[in-house]
Design a protein that fits this description.
single chain; about 120 residues; alpha+beta; OB fold (Dihydrolipoamide Acetyltransferase, E2P); 5-stranded mixed beta barrel; 2 helices; about 25% helix; about 45% strand; transmembrane
Length: about 120
């Protein structure tokens, strides 16, 4: 009886660990987004995180023949990357990002974390 309780507890802890890893640390996808940097800021109550928004232009489902903008909100882990974004607001960026299944408070407010500036114009 006591042995089966420990085995059950071990399996539950293992499954919980796998869930936390999959939800918060597994990189679901990664890619590059391009657009104009709308803002880059540091914010938060307890954990001060770096956040930003990229405006992507293109033809969308708006009125026929009009240009629709798409917004890409992201978090930044590295203070050096944030400093580069902050000092060049309004310029065109190609940003490499990683997409996670969930956001952690100390990593940022979004599931998308920018880890590299590919290009800046």
């Amino acid at each position: 009886m006591k042995k089966s309780l420990w085995i059950t507890l071990g399996v539950v802890l293992l499954l919980l660990g796998v869930f936390v890893w999959y939800k918060y640390f597994f990189v679901f996808g990664e890619g590059v987004k391009s657009g104009y940097l709308n803002y880059a800021m540091k914010k938060g109550y307890v954990f001060k995180t770096y956040e930003g928004k990229l405006i992507q232009e293109g033809f969308g489902r708006g009125k026929t023949g009009t240009i629709t903008s798409y917004e890409f909100e992201f978090s930044v882990d590295d203070p050096e990357i944030f400093k580069q974004l902050e000092t060049n607001s309004g310029k065109t960026f190609d940003l490499h990002y990683k997409e996670y299944n969930g956001a952690l408070p100390w990593r940022g407010n979004t599931k998308f974390v920018v880890d590299k500036v590919v290009n800046m114009k």
